[in-house]
Amino acid sequence: MEIEVGLRDFDGRKGCPVYRVRWGGREIIADSRLGMELEDGLLGEGLEKVREVTSKHDSTWEPVCGERSGIRDRYNGLVIEFEGRGGAVREFSIEVRAYDEGVAWRYVLPKASEGKGVAIRAEQTEFRFGSDHEAWAVYSAQGKYAKVKLSEIKKGCERPLVVRLSEDCYAALGEAALVDHARMKFASLAGAQHALVSSLDGPVEGKVPLATPWRFVMAAKTPGALLENNFLILNLNEPCAIGDTSWIRPGKVIREATLTTAGGKACVDFAVKRNLQYIEFDAGWYGNEYDDASDARAVNLDPKRSKGPLDLTEVIAHAKSKGIGVILYVNRRALEKQLDEILPLYQRWGVAGVKYGFVNVGSQKWTAWLHEAIRKAAAHRLMVDVHDEYRTTGYERTYPNLMTVEGIGGDETTPEPEQTLTLQFARFIAGPADNTVCYFDGRVNKMSSHAYQLAKPVCLYSPWQFLFWYDRPAAAGDDPELEFWDRMPTTWDETRVLDGRIGEFSAIARRSGGAWFVGCMNGPEARELSLKLDFLESGKRYTASIYSDDPSMDTRTHVRVERRPVDATTVLKPGLAARGGQAIHIAPEKR
C-alpha cells in the first residue's frame, strides 16, 4: 500500500500535516488531516517540517500462539519531524510505516523535551473517503453489528471498522499497540461528508518521550483477505518480552459450573476423555462476584450458585495428576483490590490461568491498569483471559500469556449466524476472541445447527477455546462427530480464508502439522460452496472426514460422518442449509 504524508494548507488551516492512502491504484483515504490537541496548544497546524528519515525493515518472527507459525514483518518506514507553534514551541514527529497489507502511523513526542509532562486532550486523526461507502458498525464490543453508510456512523463506533469501497475493495481502520493510552474509537467528522475522526476515551497524561498507539488502514480485494492479513496488528506491537514461554500452553476448555469437588473432578475426567487441556471454575467460587466484600484469596461459595462442597486444592491436585490445567475466574472488584496478593497465591496453588472478569476499559487509567495486570500475571507464570468489553490491539505478541479476550457477543448471548459471520470478518481482524462455544445446549438449535457449531472454533480463532461452555460431562455423550474436536488444536501453522462474505457465510482452512481443519458456517440462505483443496501437498493422498448436517440421521445432533479420499486436485462442494455448516478434517493417508 502507499501512504503520502506532507504539510499543506488544508480546510482553512495553514501548515497542516495531511495524508492520503492508495492501494492498487485506488484511493482508499482521501486527503485527511493529522494532529493532536494538547493542553498547551494544538499540534496540527502552523507547522514547519524539520527533516525526514526513511528506513526499510524485513524480518520474520514466530508467535508463541498464533494463526500461523511464522510472520513476516516487512515495511518501508518514514519519520517526519515537525516544529509547531501552538501556544508553546514544541517538536513532534509522525512515524509512518507502509506494508503490503496496510499502512500505519503514530505520533511521537521526542526526547528533546525529555522528562517534561504532556497532556493530550484530544486527537484529530481524520479518515476521509471519496464516497458514502457501506461499513459494518458496532458501538460496544459485545453489541450487534449493523451495515450502515459512513454518513450514518455515530460517535463511539468500535474498531476495527470494515468499509466496503466496491465489490473488490475492502478497507479496515483500527488501532494497534494500545498499552497505556486512552482507547480510540470513531466519530463522524463535523463539516465533512462521509468522513470519520478519531475519538479518545478521555485525556492522556504522561512524560516525554511519548508515542501514541498506531492507527492503521488495511485494504484487500475481499473481507477474507483482510482477515488473513490481521498479523499486521501484531507487527505493530513490541516483540515478546517473556524470556521463557514454555509454560504458555494453548488448549481446549470446559467450564465447571457446579462449583463442587465432584463437579470439578468430573470435568477433569471429561477433559482427559475428550482431549481438552483445561477446566475453568467460573463466577461464585469465592463468593458473590458483585459484592466488594468477596475475597478471592479463599474458597467461599456464593450460595446462590452452589451449595458445594468445593475442595479446590483437591481438584487442582487431581487435575495436575491427569495433565489438566485449572483456570479461575475473578471479577474486577476483587482484582482491583487483591491482584498483588492473589497472583502469587494462585501460583502456589498450582493454578494455570486467570479469567479477568468485567474489567474497566477505555480510559488511560484502566487501559494501563489492565496491561500491567497482564504483565504481573506473566511474572507469576499465569495465563490470562480478559472478559467483557476489552478488545486486544496486538498485545498478545508482547505478552503471549494473554491467551484470549472476549470483546464479542459469544454463545452466551445466543447470536444469530448473521452476527457471528459479521464478527468473523470484522472483529477477528483485531485478534483472538472467546466465543464461549457450546454443543449440547438447547440454544444450539435456536442459533444454527450442530455441524455449524463444530466448525465454529476453526473459524473463530482463540488459543483457548471454551468448547463446552454450557455443557456438563454427564450430558455430553459419545456422539461420533465429537472426534473432530478431539483432534482439533487451537493454534495453527497456516491459515487460509477459502471463501466468505460478511454476514452471509465463511469457509476457513487451518493447518496444524500435516493435517488441515476446515470450517464452513452459513447464514440465512442455503448455498453450495466450491472449495478447491489445492492447498494440500501435491502428489500426496489424504483422507477427509466430513461432518455435515443431515436431518435424516437418527441421532440427537443430526450430524453425518463420512470419509473419502482427497488430494490437491479435489474440489469439495459442501451443500449448506440455511444457518447450517460443515466441518472437515483432512489428514495424510497412513501407509
What does the model show?
This protein has 591 residues and is of the alpha+beta class. The protein has three domains: 2-235, Distorted Sandwich (Beta-galactosidase, Chain A, domain 5), CATH 2.70.98.10; 251-491, TIM Barrel; 505-588, Golgi alpha-mannosidase II (Immunoglobulin-like, Sandwich), CATH 2.60.40. 17% of the residues lie in helices and 39% in strands. It is built from eleven helices and 37 strands. The strands form eight sheets. Strands 6, 7, 8, 9, 12, 13, 14, 15, 19 and 20 form a ten-stranded antiparallel beta sheet that branches. A seven-stranded parallel beta sheet has the order 26-25-24-23-22-21-27. The radius of gyration is 25 Å and the shape is globular.
User: Which value, in Å, is the CA radius of gyration?
Assistant: 25 Å
Q: Which topology of the largest domain does CATH recognise?
A: TIM Barrel
In CATH, the architecture of the largest domain is: Alpha-Beta Barrel
What is the number of independent domains? 3
Give the structure's gist in a few sentences.
This protein is an alpha+beta fold. It is built from eleven helices and 37 strands. The protein has three domains: 2-235, Beta-galactosidase, Chain A, domain 5 (Distorted Sandwich), CATH 2.70.98.10; 251-491, TIM Barrel (Alpha-Beta Barrel); 505-588, Immunoglobulin-like, CATH 2.60.40.1180.
Please describe the topology of this protein:
Elements: E1 2-10, E2 13-23, E3 26-33, E4 36-38, E5 41-43, E6 47-61, E7 71-85, E8 89-98, E9 102-109, E10 117-123, E11 126-128, E12 134-137, E13 146-149, E14 161-166, E15 169-176, E16 184-188, E17 195-200, E18 204-207, E19 210-211, E20 214-220, H1 223-228, H2 231-235, E21 251-256, H3 261-273, E22 278-281, H4 312-321, E23 325-331, H5 332-349, E24 353-357, H6 364-379, E25 383-386, H7 395-398, E26 402-405, H8 417-425, H9 443-447, H10 450-459, E27 464-468, H11 483-487, E28 494-501, E29 505-512, E30 515-522, E31 527-528, E32 531-532, E33 542-549, E34 559-566, E35 571-572, E36 575-576, E37 581-588
Parallel strand pairs: 21-22, 21-27, 22-23, 23-24, 24-25, 25-26
Antiparallel strand pairs: 1-2, 2-3, 4-5, 4-10, 6-7, 7-8, 8-9, 9-19, 9-20, 10-18, 11-17, 12-13, 12-14, 14-15, 15-20, 16-17, 28-29, 29-30, 30-37, 31-36, 32-35, 33-34, 33-37
Helix pairs in contact: 3-4
